[in-house]
Each structure stands twice: as structure tokens, then as C-alpha cells.
Amino acid sequence: MDIGLLAQYIMNGLMVGMMYALVAVGFTLFFGVLDVIQFAHGDVLTVGAFAALMTFAGLHAAGLGSGSILVIAMVVVSVFTMAGLGMVIGRYMVLPLRTAPALNTLLITLMLGTVLRESVRLFYPQGANPKPFPALLPASSISIGNFNLRLDNAMMLAAGVLVIAGVELLLNRTKLGLAIRAVAQDEETARTMGINFRAIVLIAFAVGSALAAIAGVMNGFYYNEINFGMGLYLGVVGFAAAIIGGLGSIYGAILGGFLFAALQTIGTVALPFGSAYKDVFAFAVVIILMAWRPTGLVREKISERV
Amino acid sequence: MQPGIIAQVLVTVYFIAFLAVEKQPLIIGMLGLAVIATLAAYWMGWLALVNRSFADREDVLVPSAIVAALAVAAFFHDNHFVLLLIVTILLYTLATLGLNIQFGYAGVLNFAAASFFGIGAYTSAVLNARTNLPHLLVLLLGGVLAALIGSLLLLPVLRTRGHYAALVTIAFALLLKAFLEVNDVLGGPQGLQVEGMKIGGWSFNDNIEIGHIEVSFYMNYFVLSLALLAGAFVLSRRLERSWIGLNLDALRLDETAASCFGLDVARWKITAFTLGNFLIGIAGALFGMVGGFVAPNNYTFADSLILVSILLLGGIGNPWGLVVATGIVVVLPEKLQTLQEYRFLLYSLMVIAVLLFRPEGLLPRPARNYFPGWRP
User: Fold this and answer.
1) Over the stretch B208-253, which tens digit does the pLDDT of each residue have?
2) Which end of chain A is more exposed for a tag (fewer CB within 10 A), N or C?
3) What is the number of structural domains in chain B?
4) Nearest-CA residue of chain B relative to A234?
């Protein structure tokens, strides 16, 4: 295989890995503060992508905005609405069930995911069909040998890196981040130190869901198409990535996301029928990894949670 | 007179009337009536009485339930549509009974129930077309194959708990659908035709004539489904009441404590998971033959969630609740055509409401009854 093609595969893997990593970080945040898995997370991503598409449609119909302004408007609207949605989910679905068995949280978020998915399918105009996503990012590309570096992909990758760096800064360098980490480490001690537990949980839900919105918009720009079922796939894969990373640390989640994308890229290239059975392979990898290392690749001292 | 019998008679009469009416406003009116009646019965404490009676006097209530089902079927003996609906209810109940053994008794999560149902249906599609195996054996093989394929998931399910096990089964549900869609041997997205059931020379897909009365061919399937369901029902009740059921309950309530008392956690999880998938597979195999057609789109993750919804609505662990909940979930969208499109949305909302306000389900599982009829 020549270098150019290899670089192409690596680039694609990085793009997909970035989306997985963003979703996985969200799962990790929720699990950190509240020890729950928010199974509707993937569908929040879908709704985020559709919110961006709606923003575009609205602004476009009004004849407002040029390329870059449209993109910024789409991202901003999507991020803020999803942050709001995440807080609503945390406040009305997850927090009330804190004392109930963990199974109930699992079920309620699964059902909520279905509600979101079905709402998009039923109430978005022709939501059952895949929707074209506007190609607003610059389409030009730089060719290096066989390798075709598309500018939009490079921009998205850079944006993803910036977002992850921002989350990292937020968590490790600010007072808010300190509070989130404190709650994640020990809820009761954090409370006695005067941290508003409920507010911190809701903020974590907002941040995680905003990341999902970014991943959703990114997904739209990357494939130029979105559909109502995409969140289910990204949710399962993102959750698996978070688990591979150990479900405790942000870095683990990011690592898991890219690792999963790498496995998938290798599988698609190396296996016969790889591309036709792409999804089958991805889910098989999820199941096998869960069987092999249910506590994640990054070994932890305590493996109580499994 | 047992309160259970009275409830059965009322429900049967209501059910026949509900299936018979066609006008949409009338259907909505009847639904409202049912909701009000149920609420009233709940406030008066009758519901608890009925529930108790169902737990205590199963020896009387199982036969009478069979009689009730036969009465409904006899009433609609020439109506293809309604009989198909009833067969669907019976087979879905059979499948949810299997799910109940996993979920309700042993606490093993399975969000791929529709996939195992589909495995059963595809088994009957392939075996009926390619081989000359007797069709009753095909039913059995549908269950066996579902259990076997399910056993591939045993390792990850055993090694994980809670959310993680849920992820494994969800991944499997998505995997199977993706696989069926791209696999040409199994018909791809278009699916396969399934030959109808034949036992000896008796084809289930021919109408029956008794004297001058024409009986729909679905009556064949109805009788077989009812027999299967009754068998599975009695089996699962025996299981629940036996020491095995006690073990499974202990496992669900506290795995660590159960293993401290010497229970082999892995063994009982395997038993419950395999037995449950076996029942689901049999139900799927017969359902494939009834419908005459299988396609990947009928066995999606959303359908698995519907089966789980039935379990939650009915009250986890209570087989009688399952019968009622399955009836509601299957019949409602068929009678109210406007709901058909919105059914996934509706059921998810219903389950969210149940989880928030009545987590134990409509008919909660009564306390374990060591000696039927005995009271301290």
C-alpha cells in the first residue's frame, strides 16, 4: 500500500475517532459526577445535528448570512440547545431516580433516547429519510502525492482538538472544573465543602451534551448527510470507547475513541467484505472487547463497577 | 367466587367488544372507559384483591384463562384480521415470558429480545424452504438456535453487570440487524418468505370447514400458540415457585450476597439467559410461519425495546401482568390507526411515566407464595 493511501486512511480514522472521542468524553462526564450511564446521549447528538440543520434552513430561508456566519450560527444554536436539553434530562429524568435501582435510570434514558429518535423521525419534515447536510466549509483540498488533504476535514479536526483542549482546561484549570472533579471523587465530601451538588451535576450534563452537539454537527459536515438513527450507532460506539478507556478518565475516553476508530479502519481495509460488513464488524468488536476487558484497557485499582 | 374469575370474565367481554367495534370515536370512548374503570378498581382496592387471587388460585385461573381465550377466538372464528391479532398477542406473550425469566427473575438484562425472536423466525424461513424437517421440529430448532446464538453473548454478559451487559446486548441487536441487511443468503433487506406450518398432511394455511361454519385458517395457529403459551406459562410459574426461582430471585436482588451463600452465579445466569432465549426463539419461529414473511426491519432494537416495555408496563416478574400488557401494546395501535406510526414514541413515553410514577408496573409482582392458598 502506498503512503498516500495510508495517509488517507489515517486521516479518515482521525476524523471518525474525533467524533467517537467527543461522545465518549460525554459518557465519562456523566458517569463521573453521578455514576450513571445516560443512554440517550447518542440521540442527543442526533437532535443536535438536526437543530443545526434547522438553524441552517431557517437562516437560509431568511436569506441571512454567508458561509462562515452560518456555520458559527449552526454550531452555537446546536451547542446551547443541547446543553439545555442535557440539563433538562439530568434534572427531570436522572436526578429523580437517584435512589431507585440503577436499572431504572438505564431504562428511562434508553426510553428517552427512543422518544428523541422517534420525535426526529416523526416530527421533522420527512424525518424518516436521510437529510442532506449543507456543505458550508471550504471544499478545496491540498494534494500531496496520492494523499488528498481536504481543508474542511483539517478544520474540523483542529476544531475538535480545540474543543477537547477546552474541556481539559475547564476541568483541570478552573474552579468549576475542580468542583466537578470533587463531586466525581466523593459526592458527600464535596457537599460538605460547600459545593452545590445539583448545580455541578447539571453543568456536567450541559457540558457533555454540548460535546455531543459538536460531534453531531461534525458528523453532518463530514458525511454531508444526517439521519434519525445515527445517534444510536454513535452512542453505542461512544459508550464502548468510554469503557475501553476505563470509564474513569477523560484521557481514557479520548484514547478509547481513537483506538476504536483505528480498529474499525484496520478492519475495513484488512478484512475481506470489510466495507459491506463494516457495522457488523464494529459491533462485534464492541462485544469482544467487553468480553475480554470489561473494565477497560487502562487497568484500574478498583473494578467494582462492573 | 374468586375475584380473579370475575376480572377474567369482565376483561374477556370487554376485549371482545373492543375488537368488534370499528368506529374510531367508539374505540376512544371504550379506552377512556377502561382507564376510568381500572383507576376506580385501583382506588377501591379491587385491583389488589384480583392480583392476590391470581397469585393464589392459579389452579383455577389458568384453565379459565384458556377458556376465555378460546371464547374470544370462537367469537371471531371467521375473522382473519382479529385472529391474527390474537395469535400475535399470544406469541408476544410467549416471548416476553422468556424475557421475564431473564429480566424479571434472574435480573439478566437483554435488550436484544427482538433479535432472538428474529433468529427464530429466520430459522423457520430457511429450514422450511431448504429442508423437509417436520415443522414442529423446526419450531424447536428455532428455539435451540436462538439459545445457541445467545450463548455467544454469555461470556460478555457473565463478565459484566448492569449498564455494561446492557451495552453488549444492544450492540448485538444492532449487529444482527446490520448482518441480516447485508447478507444475501438470508434475503438482505427484502427478507424471506416463510412457508406455512404443516403437520403430517394437515396444512395450517387452509381454511377449515366444520359443517357449514367456515373457520379462518389462523385458528390452527391460534390453537398451537395457545398450547405453547399455556405450556410455557405453567413452566415459568413452576420455575418461579421452585428452588430454582428462589435462586434466581436471590441472584437478582443481590449478586454478591447470593454468591456468598454458595449460589453459582454463572450457572444460574446461563440457565436463565438460555432458557429465556429458547422461549423467545420458539415464539419467533412460529411467528415467522404465521406471518409468512421475515425481514430485518421487523426485528430492530426498537422492537426489543417494545418487548422490554411490555415487561415494565405489566410489572416485572408477574406473568399475568405480561398477558394484559401485551394485549394493550399489540392491540392499541392496530385498532387506533392513527397510533400505528407513533407507537414507539407512545410506548417509550408510557414506560417513562411508569418508571417515574409507578416503577413496579401496572400489576406488581406479588410476594412469593411458598404454599398456594396458605396464609399465616
Assistant:
1) 777 777 788 888 889 999 999 999 999 988 888 888 988 998 988 8
2) N
3) 2
4) B171
In this structure, is the dihedral angle defined by the CA atoms of residues B299, B305, B311 and B316, taken in order, positive or negative? positive
Distance, in Å, from the CA atom of B336 to the CA atom of B249, rounded to the nearest integer, reads: 38
CA distance B243 to B231: 20
CA angle (B301 as vertex; A266, B354 as ends), nearest 5: 135
Q: Which of B152, B352, B354 to mutate to test the interface with A (most CBs of A within 10 A)?
A: B352
Grid cell, residue B161, equals 453487570
Residue A37, chain B, CB below 8 Å: the answer is: yes
Mutation for A interface: B160, B167, B356, most A CBs within 10 A: B167
Directed axis angle between helix A102-123 and helix B301-314, to 10°?
130
Chain B residues inside the 8 Å CB shell of A277: 178-179, 182
Q: How far apart are CA A249 and CA A96, in angstroms?
A: 26
- Verify that B65 and B111 share a domain, yes or no: no
Say if B153 falls within a structural domain.
yes
Q: What are phi and psi of B193, to 5 degrees?
A: -80, 150
Contact B304, B115 (CB under 8 A): yes
Query: Would you place residue B373 in the very low, low, confident or very high pLDDT band (cuts 50, 70, 90)?
Result: low
8 Å CB contact of B345 and A236:
no
| Residue B65 grid cell | 384463562
Q: Provide the Cα torsion A31, A37, A38, A42; round to 10°.
A: 100
Q: Give residue B26's domain range.
A: 1-75
B345 touches chain A (CB under 8 A): yes
Same domain? For B91 and B56 the reply is no
B154 to chain A, any CB pair closer than 8 A? The answer is: no
One domain, residues B236 and B97: yes
- CA A57 – CA A49 distance, rounded (Å): 12
C-alpha dist (Å) from residue A63 to A39, B3, B49, B181? 38, 68, 66, 42
Q: Are B71 and B130 part of one and the same domain?
A: no
Question: Do B156 and B49 sit in the same domain of this protein?
Answer: no
Are B171 and B40 members of one domain? Answer: no
Strand-pairing partners, residue B215, are B208
Per domain, the residue ranges of chain A are 13-137+148-228
* CA atoms within 13 A of residue B107's CA, in its CB half-sphere: 21
Band of the pLDDT at A53, cuts 50, 70, 90?
very high
- Burial class of residue B130 (count of CB atoms within 10 Å of its CB; 0-12, 13-18, 19+): exposed
Q: Tell me which residue in A102, A118, A284 faces B175 most closely, judged by beta carbons.
A: A284
Residues B135 and B166 in one domain: yes
Statement: residue A301 has pLDDT above 50: no
Q: Is the Cβ–Cβ distance between A19 and A25 less than 8 Å?
A: no
**Nearest-Cα residue of chain A relative to residue B167:** A236
- Closest residue of chain B to A93, computed from CA coordinates: B356
pTM, entire model: 0.88
Mutate to test the interface with A, among B102, B154, B164, B311 (most CBs of A within 10 A): B164
pLDDT per position as a tens digit, B324-333 = 889 888 888 8
pLDDT in tens, A263-288: 888 888 877 766 778 788 888 888 88
Q: Residue range B344-364: average pLDDT?
A: 84
**Which residues of chain B neighbour A280 with C-beta distances below 8 Å?**
175, 178-179, 182
